[in-house]
Amino acid sequence: MAAQTETFSEVVELNVGGQVYVTRLETLRAVPNSLLWTKFTQNSPRDLPTDSKGRFFFDRDGFLFRYILDYLRDSDLILPEFFKERRRLLKEADFYQLPELSRLLDTKAEVSELSPVTSSSDRGSRSPGACAGYITVGYRGSYTIGRDIQADAKFRRVARITVCSKISLAKEVFGDTLNESRDPDRPPDRYTSRYYLKYNFLEQAFDRLAEAGFHMVACNSTGTCTYGTNDPGEDRLWTSYTEYVFSR
Fold it and tell me: What is the CATH number of domain 134-146+156-247?
């Protein structure tokens, strides 16, 4: 009888191909008769495989699963510009038994094949002679979530915004807002991952990148959760690291 009454938590932790995701149970059950709906309605927690930390494990593409979750949350699909993994994402949609998502991916594939290539003037301004390249902006942050998961998370100030790129490109975009103290006197044709910005808000960095003709092409985030004590009523402290990749 104990196994029959065992239920899933309202907040579920998943390990998908080594990538950790945290989402609501209702999100996983959003599409009836899908694979995730079946797993989390027709089974008990002990029926599903878990990793060493007790997260429910799925041996699938961890990077592409973020788009599966986005679809389950919003019943819509918005992909980054120049997304190159559509065929692989379609395979994942088929695996998770999401026929409407598969249809959306087929439709978007047809549109992208018929649409003309967007000109550089349509994608934003770019100064004459400006070099093409990539800049990655990263930051570490932390926030707490209380016992009542319906309450707003308490975010702390972003500690430091880092810049990874070719040195000449970073100096062109950020100028004197760039702090070079951790990697000084480097030649302009070298690369660095040790610069950081004299900004307190990510949007300030995004504005500079947009003005220089850059567009975000990818982002990635990871987080860890810690407890101060074993008290289940204590707030959970999450620490995260996020990177945004921009291209011109």
Answer: 3.30.1410
